[in-house]
Design goal:
The protein is mainly alpha-helical. It has seven helices and three strands, in the order H-H-H-E-H-H-E-E-H-H. Helix 1 runs antiparallel to helix 2 and helix 2 crosses helix 6.
Length: about 190
């Protein structure tokens, strides 16, 4: 483990240990300003440890996977997301709006990113044949080769830094808890 990552992991534990003190200080501050924060269900020590640990893990894991992906393939996370989604779609084509919605990006943001990827020859954009208002994205031969080359190394990175660190039971529980939260958030987005 690098000193940077090791220090960050140790820092996550220190932060988790401090959550009770922070909660107490915030509750105390609320009392001092006329009861602000009354009725708030503050995180318990265990809940705070889990929440802060998750946030720190996500930040460190995203950082490491991003570094590995860039080093191994020259692709960014966004490049990989676009290429993998196109590679898994019928005929390697998707409407720009559908891909933007799936990636939780605005159409404008994705359009700018697709322009840069198009300049590198990874994707092509054309007017949607069934609807002149929309754009359709196509994975080019170069994009197909890029994702085929990047995917095995990216999966190896995910295994090395995440999956292989967990037991089968932890993976099962993680799958259940992510489905619970994603279902909840999906209903909010759809509602």
């Amino acid at each position: 483990m690098s000193e940077e990552v090791g220090g960050a992991v140790r820092g996550a534990g220190d932060a988790a240990d401090a959550v009770g003190a922070v909660g107490s200080a915030v509750r105390g501050a609320g009392d001092a300003v006329g009861g602000a924060g009354e009725g708030v269900q503050w995180l318990s020590g265990e809940e705070g440890r889990a929440w802060l640990g998750y946030r720190r893990m996500r930040a460190l894991l995203d950082l490491q996977l991003t570094r590995d992906l860039a080093r191994d393939s020259g692709l960014s996370d966004a490049d990989y997301d676009v290429l993998s989604n196109l590679s898994e779609s019928a005929e390697h084509r998707l409407r720009l709006g559908d891909l933007a919605a799936h990636m939780l990006w605005s159409k404008s943001r994705l359009s700018h990113h697709i322009t840069r990827m198009g300049q590198r020859g990874l994707v092509a954009r054309r007017d949607c044949p069934s609807d002149g208002r929309g754009a359709e994205l196509t994975l080019t031969d170069a994009g197909w080769e890029a994702i085929k080359s990047a995917a095995p190394r990216h999966v190896d990175s995910v295994r090395r830094h995440f999956i292989d660190r967990l037991s089968a039971e932890q993976i099962r529980v993680l799958g259940e808890l992510t489905e619970t939260v994603v279902d909840h958030l999906g209903r909010i987005q759809d509602g």
